[in-house]
Amino acid sequence: MSISHTLLGLLEAGPRHGYDLKRAFDERFGHDRQLHYGQVYSTMSRLLKNGLVEVDGVEAGGGPERKRYAITDAGVTDVQTWLTTPEKPEPYLQSTLYTKVVLAMLTGRDAGELLDTQRAEHLRLMRDLTRRKKGGDLADQLICDHALFHLEADLRWLETAGSRLEKLAKEVLA
Amino acid sequence: MSGTRTEPRAADGAAEAEAGGTPGSGPDSRTAHDPARRPSLRGWFDDIAMGLRFAFGGGREGWLRTCLTSVGVGVGVAVLLFAASVPHMMEAQDARKASWTPTSTFQEEPRKSDQTLLSDTANTEFRGESVRGRILDPDGEQPPVPAGLEAIPEPGEVVVSPKLRELLRSSEGDLLKPRVPGEITGTISKEGLAGPQELAFYAGSDDLTSDTASRVDGYGPQEGESQPLPAALMLLIVVACVVLLLPVGAFIAAAVRFGGERRDRRLAALRLTGADTRMTRRIAAGEAAGGSLLGLAVGGVFFLLLRESATAVRVQGLSLYSSDLLPHPGLTALLAIAVPGCAIAVTLLALRGVVIEPLGVVRQTPTRKRRLWWRVLPMLLGVALLLPYLGGFAEGETQSDVDTFQLAAAVVLILVGVTALLPWLVESVVRRTRGGPVALQLAVRRLQLDSGTSARAVSGVTVAIAGAIALQVLFGAVQEDETTLSGGPRFDSQLLVSTPAQEHATAEALRADLDRSQGVRETIALTSSFAIPADAGPDGMEDSVTVGDCASLRTLAKIDSCEPGDTFVVTDSDPGATPKPGTTYAMDDPAGDAKSGDKGRAERWKLPEDARPVSSHQAHDDFSVTSGILTTPEAVDDTRLTQGYSDVHVRTDPGNEDTTEHVRNTAARFSMAADTFNQTDTRVSQEFAAIKRGIYAASAALLLLIGASLTISTLEQLRERKRLLSVLVAFGTRRSTLGWSVFWQNAIPILLGVALAAATGVGLGLLLLQLAGVPMSVDWLAIGGLASLGGLLILLVTLLSAPVLWRMMRPDGLRTE
Amino acid sequence: MTAPATTVTPPTATTALLAASGLHKTYGSTAALAGADLSVRAGEVVAVMGPSGSGKSTLLHCLAGIVPPDSGTVHYRQQEMSSMSDAERSALRRRDFGFVFQFGQLVPELTCTENVALPLRLAGAKRRAAEERATHWLERLEVEDVRHHRPGQISGGQGQRVAIARALVGDPSVIFADEPTGALDSLNGERVMDLLTDSAKESRTAVVLVTHEARVAAYSDREIVVRDGSARDMAALA
Fold first, then answer.
1. CB-side neighbour CA atoms (13 Å) of B26
2. According to its record, what are the GO cellular component terms (chain C) (predicted)?
């Protein structure tokens, strides 16, 4: 899962300071592991350097002063590319895909489209594997089968997620 | 046989072992005290009660099935109740008939007294219906009054049956009125009538003489004179009963199995929830019992409803009071036990070839061929039972009780044999069939897989048709036997009016009246009597003397020239019996007591020497004169002949039914003693025709009944194959192809059934004819008629199932969601 | 494998063997199809996927001319199917299409050979010739040893192979397969799909394959997803 893309995506909804970003990330995606502050700031400085975010301003609060980050046009394009590029179909993609779906929703993009693209990519790989299986020996077949069954499970997840998008959108945008 | 028995047993054992492992799953857990795991009586009742609940509480579909079964069983039960009413009906009718039949009919005539009356019959016929008429003339103050009358009607008065009163009131009755002598003053009550539709009257009179009328001193059953049935008639009745009742049994058996496929599926579901094989059988039995019990009730209601309308039915002048239709209590009890019993037996039998597994129904496909040998057994046994009688019954011999049972058993065995033979026949024919168009192939293959179901349904038809054909052969032959009775002079007449009178003048007077009667074209009059040669002893041979004008005489013999005053002698008989011209005959003295004495022989008549020899027309030698004297009235004093009767033969305009009634009226006006006979069609053959019509009607009704059950099973089969039909439609099967396959599927068993029925029927009929000692003859046209009824049935079933087939052939069946 | 891995673009209406556009079909009050488009090129295997109740079977029925759509058109070889009579469509199905369903499609009374020969016989072929061809196809599908058996006596996998033989026997242009492996385990299902797609490719028969299993859909060249009555060609996304 790409933390930088996720944070960028979160910024697309509006400028935030680092602490906000961490809290938002934890709320949405940090189910099993919370984001470390250091990760936020190091990512932000990398994004700043690449010109994908800019500092929107500095807040002086009760504590230490805080930088507010905003996404740049280049940043938006980057998010866009990331969201529309299907992941390489491989096992245990759920968390990445989930993150993508939620971010797509948060940023007003078409999450269904994202899932369909991913689905097509999965099936393309499955087709390749099926074809390879036909020509291969037993070992090949078994290896391909393993992959195929996993991919099939992912694909089912994609289908299930697709049919629950509306419900998810309600929760995410609530 | 034993192979199929043991197999389900083994399955039982396995199923029970399985069920035993699951707590509370079978009856076994309830009967833990019984180590042999035999279900307790309680368990039995529980299972059967569950079946009953399924029969009545199975939702809309369950109800439909139960309704179909109960209506089907009800129809059968109603028919059987009617059959069970026959004994009482006959008893009641016989008792009523006896109450107006004079006791003297078969006894010596009683002496004239204050308590006697003179009675003469005035029976007639009106448009094919017989009218019972009686003229009564009391001798004194206390004459015996026949049942149904309050008193003997006064001279000029008539008491009529309600139906006759109704008829006489209608415009139709005008034609009958002249034959009812007097004014209607009363109505015959129920006790005096055979049935509500009977046409009958009693007329009062004061001028009857003991010459024509008989003296009566009372009414009632004839002592020791109960007339046994003639053997041939008894045969007819036995066959008719078997023929009509067997298909009803077959129909009930089919009705009990309506919706069997669905039932099996429900039982499979029960197995899934833990019922063992035996439980499912008991539940199925309970369900069948439920349907048939309701059927009994429905049958009872049908019977009561039909009983009321039975009073309107008149067959052969016979009609019934609804109170006559009282089912025999023993037979009714038997019916009440036998119908549910048979329902259960049929269900269990049907389940024998089926293994109900928790996940579905496995039909044991019959891999073995059906064996022929035991299927022919009933038939062979039946024929064997008939063999001892093959010599034929002696003339006039009647049945003993043993004979009746043996005959009935033989006929039942032969007809049941058809039922047993049919599945084998269908199977072996279908097994050999290959090729043919797709529709035929589908049908044949279907029958190869399961020909039993349709063969069973058809066997009812087969029994009905075989029996009807057997009856047809019997009746056909008997009828021919009877119709040969008509004959007479070579004169193509339709009617014959006969009156007891030896004077030819009477005949001529009657003839003159009849010539004026409406619709009469031509008549001849012949008076027949006898004369005794004067030199013969008391036992001397009489010569017949026939008096008529030249034209009338020419109808009897080949006469060239004839003038009034001529006399002829018929010569073509035994020369010794030919009267010799010049013979002197002793004549009755009209003044004296004709019957009593020698002194009456004073008058003599000499057969003229110039009496010319003539030969008779050989064509009608039954009744025509083949010997004796033919004479013109001018040549003889016919007032002195003995035992004369005058016949007027009447030729009528064709196509006018009423002519007959006009002639009867004219004859009745002339003399109440004149009888009118229909020459073209004897009454006997009319009765046979009516019985034949009755059999046809009953066979047709049975065929319809069986058609209904065939249709239902076809529909059920179609519904079961909904998905398959949709698939067939998907890959482009024409509707007509599937329509034809349904057609063939019904046609093959029905055609085979009809063929088998025709063969058995003709065979049985000919065999029975041998018994009855009647020459053989087969009315192929009538058999063809019955066979085409079978064909009609095929069409009917196919047409009736077509709409459902069409609906099934929609692609909806492909949708699995 | 001869089939190119790159046949992913949907055919245009003129190059398509079978093309449907704007299909609407309503059963009672539920809309099974609401404006579905789809086209199939000669010889390609198209998988139709989608959740149950999405209308995939209805789409197949409309494409095959079994069910006329309420509105929209289906062209087969540039010929509009809804303008054909029922008899013409039946004849077309006999001649040009083959069918494989999930279950219950074999006539239980007929032997396997006779079942396979059935489409030929329906089209008017002589019994002997039809059964010879049927035997040939049963051999191709490796079920020649059950050719005299009845459907009740063979396994589900064998039954599906017989059904595929029957679908292929008439040398159809399109085979419509509705969940052909739905009642089979995965190994049997794969074998059946191998045989179906290989045979179809060899005889350049197009296959419209309705399935909800991704592994089955993986045998296709192209994937269509039906959702809420409309069809989406996934080729455009990959």
1. 24
2. plasma membrane
Contacts of B172 (CB under 8 A, 6+ apart): none
Q: Note the helical H segments in B149-200.
A: 162-169
Is B362 in the C-facing interface, judged by CB distances under 8 Å? no
Which ipTM score applies to this complex?
0.82
- B370 in a structural domain: no
Domain match, B70 and B123 both? no
Same domain for B751 and B690, yes or no, is: yes
| A160 contacts A97 by C-beta, under 8 angstroms | no
Give the closest-approach CA distance of A74 to chain C in angstroms: 24
Q: Which residues of C touch A149 (CB under 8 A)?
A: 215
- Which domains can be identified in chain C, with CATH numbers? 18-236 (3.40.50.300)
Reported as a single tens digit per residue, the pLDDT across B515-535 is: 888 888 888 888 877 777 777
Mean pLDDT of B5-16: 35
**What number is the average pLDDT over the span B6-23?**
36
Question: Residue B726 falls within a domain, yes or no?
Answer: yes
Q: What percent of chain B has pLDDT over 70?
A: 69
Instruction: Please give the pLDDT value at position C197.
Output: 92
Residue appearing with tokens 């494409």: C63
Do both B154 and B245 map to the same domain? no
**Over the stretch A71-103, which tens digit does the pLDDT of each residue have?**
999 999 998 888 888 887 776 667 788 888 888
Helix (H, G, I), strand (E, B) or coil at C221: coil
Let me know if residue B464 belongs to a domain: yes
Q: Can you tell me the distance from the alpha carbon of B365 to that of B354, in angstroms, rounded to the nearest whole number?
A: 9
- Best of B450, B731, B734, B741 to substitute, by most chain C Cβ atoms within 10 angstroms, is B731
- Partner residue facing C61 (CB), from B733, B814, B817: B814
- HEC string of C52-74 equals CCCCHHHHHHHHCCCCCCCEEEE
pLDDT tens readout for residues B299-353: 999 889 888 877 776 655 567 787 888 888 888 898 888 888 888 887 887 777 6
Q: Which of B191-195, B507-511, B781-785 has the lowest mean pLDDT?
A: B781-785
Whole-angstrom distance, CA of residue B232 vs CA of residue B238? 10
DSSP helix, strand, coil percent of chain C (3-state; round to 5) = 35, 25, 40
- Check: CB of residue C119 under 8 Å from CB of residue B731: yes
Interchain touch B–A (≥3 Cβ pairs closer than 8 Å): no
Q: CB C57 to CB B724 under 8 A? A: no
Within a domain: residue B212?
yes
Output the CA–CA distances (angstroms, integers) from residue A50 to A2, A45, A53, A57, A83, in the order listed: 16, 9, 8, 18, 19
Domain edge (last residue) among B681, B698, B733 = B681
Give the strand pairing for C174-178 and C206-210.
parallel
Place of tokens 């196509």: B655
Residues C90, B804: Cα–Cα separation, whole Å:
20
Is B530 in the same domain as B654?
yes
